[in-house]
Amino acid sequence: MTPTAAAGGTRVLYIAGYGRSGSTLLDLLLGRIEGWFSMGEFRLVWYARRDGWRCACGEKVADCEIWSQVFARAGDVDDGHALSLVKTMVRTRRVPELLASHLPGDHRAEREELRGLLGSVYGATAQVTGARVLVDSSKDPVYGLVLAGIPSIRLHVVHLVRDSRAVAWSWQRRRLRPEIGTTDAYMPVRSPVRTSLDWDLRNGLAHVLGRRAASYTRLTYESFVRDPDAVVEAIARRIDPDASVTIGDPTTAAANHTVAGNPMRFEGTSVEVKLDTEWQTALGARDRRVVTALTWPLQKVYGYGASGSAPSDSDAPRG
């Protein structure tokens, strides 16, 4: 493919927020825009390469036609060392160091080494795929702060929010991880309390990340699934005005090379786009009270009602 460089650096659309909020679906639909490329939850690529995870194309990530070219172009990358850097810097306690990069810190060398490495890998991805915009659905706002400090990357943030009670119910489901082909492995199950506290933290930090980005858009899951075409077009127009926004039938899956994310990325036939309200009847009354009590301030900010009412379509996307 012909390399294309974005003015001002590699343009990356970063989907921030908390898991089970529809980020993989949004990532896949954005990746259908001509000149855009879906990376999936790319912060996990080092685990994928080390442990032999499968790319959504079916090949191991290390053997995938796209990712093998990317890492060859990026140079000699030690997966174990890269993963060590990620584990050191992508931690909530590192947020002050990531926000004040000009100041010396205990982990300044690791921070700059990680940023240099990621800058090379994201740049190589844009070159190999010919993409004007890379879509990364890693969600973790701390990882986003690492990317925001890379001079060669122009970061645009889409903060995807879903009702905390729906998220709490989703994290109680047991889901298979198809990228791990050697054995049956499942995504972790999390308690309502753990989910609530993480939901507060991740969404709160996403606002901090937004202030470090070239652009920030807040989007609710509910508004997205009600009209995915309109949402995708609005996001594309803000970030890439010259884009030809034709995503096709959103209920039909398309080939992709995402390295991690929701199992739907492996579905080669169809992806159902509809509002999931199962939590309203499935989440127990006690769990619902606990989640509501622990998350109500941000729930109110995002427009969620106590009875389960969702924000109106007019609320999204918004800056």
Description:
By secondary structure, the chain is an alpha/beta fold. It contains 13 helices and five strands. The chain has helices spanning 23-30, 45-51, 65-74, 79-89, 95-99, 108-129, 141-148, 164-170, 192-210, 221-226, 228-239, 279-282, 285-302; strands at residues 10-17, 36-40, 133-139, 153-161, 215-220. A five-stranded parallel β-sheet has the order 2-3-1-4-5, with helices on both faces. Helix 7 (141-148) packs parallel to helix 9 (192-210). The protein is globular, with a radius of gyration of 19 Å.
Oligomer: single chain
The CATH architecture:
3-Layer(aba) Sandwich
Tell me the CATH superfamily: P-loop containing nucleotide triphosphate hydrolases
Biggest β-sheet: count, sense, barrel? 5 strands, parallel
Lay out the secondary structure:
Layout: E1 10-17, H1 23-30, E2 36-40, H2 45-51, H3 65-74, H4 79-89, H5 95-99, H6 108-129, E3 133-139, H7 141-148, E4 153-161, H8 164-170, H9 192-210, E5 215-220, H10 221-226, H11 228-239, H12 279-282, H13 285-302
Parallel strand pairs: 1-3, 1-4, 2-3, 4-5
Keywords:
319 residues, alpha/beta, Rossmann fold, 13 helices, 5 strands, 43% helix, globular, disordered N terminus
